Amino acid sequence: MTTPVPPDDCIFCKIVAGDLPAEVVHASDSSVAFKDLNPQAPTHFLVIPRSHYANAAELAVHEPSALADLFTTARDVAEEKGLEGYRAVFNTGAAAQQTVFHAHLHVLAGRELTWPPG
Ligand code: AMP
Ligand code: ZN
Predict the structure, then answer these.
(1) Predicted pLDDT of residue 3
(2) Quick check: CB of 97 below 6 Å from ligand 1?
(3) Of 10, 26, 34, 104, which cross-links 22 as Cys (Cβ 3.0–4.6 Å)?
(4) What's the structural domain count of the chain?
């Protein structure tokens, strides 16, 4: 397996390394979950792989088990928090409002979530 080389300025790599503070809610061997700085719902946390990939598809190609771990981590946190349900979202590409190019799963809950999303 090739280990990706992250850009020096990746803020999520810095959170994984402990060089940038974050409100961590869960950590596993391959993932870290922490509260989003700009929450869009009463519960809004991100689950990221410890390895740097630009998006979820790249993670799926290179480390499929780490992609799966994002979802099982989301489930574990949801169970710990007693959430009845949650929305799990990957924004992929700038046109879909991706702003941080280190794969991350948004997990949102705690309010009525409408469909279709905006
Ligand atoms: P996206 O727009 O899908 O790339 O999502 C990036 C998310 O990261 C946004 O919801 C931001 O509020 C969040 N974010 C950016 N920097 C930080 C940080 N240092 N700690 C926690 N969340 C962050
Ligand atoms: Zn990164």
Answers:
(1) 61
(2) yes
(3) 34
(4) 1
Spell out, as residue ranges, where the chain has pLDDT lower than 70.
1-3
For 103, residues 6+ apart whose C-beta sits below 8 A from its C-beta are 48, 49, 53, 54, 55, 56, 58, 59, 67, 70, 90
Q: Is residue 67 part of a domain?
A: yes
| pLDDT for the residue numbered 114 | 95
| Residues 27-36 pLDDT 10s | 999 999 999 9
Please report whether residue 117 resides in a domain. no
Handedness of CA 29, 75, 66, 118 (dihedral sign): negative
Ligand 1 atom nearest to CA at 99: 4
Rounded CA-CA distance 99/50 in Å is 18
pLDDT at 7 (0 to 100): 83
Distance 79 CA to ligand 1 centre (A): 23
Q: What is the CATH number of the domain that holds 62?
A: 3.30.428.10
**The domain containing residue 25 runs over which residues?**
11-109
